[in-house]
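README: folding subset

This subset contains proteins for which both the sequence and a predicted structure token string are available. Records are stored as plain text. Below is the entry for Protein CBG26022 (30 residues), shown exactly as it appears on disk.
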Amino acid sequence: MNDSNRSSTISLHMIEDDTMIGKDISETNI
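--- output ---
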């Protein structure tokens, strides 16, 4: 696995984490 593939996979997981965090925040604010 080369670095570009690994970094894109990591950023993909970061985006998923951000959406999960955003969902948690919006649910708490309700």
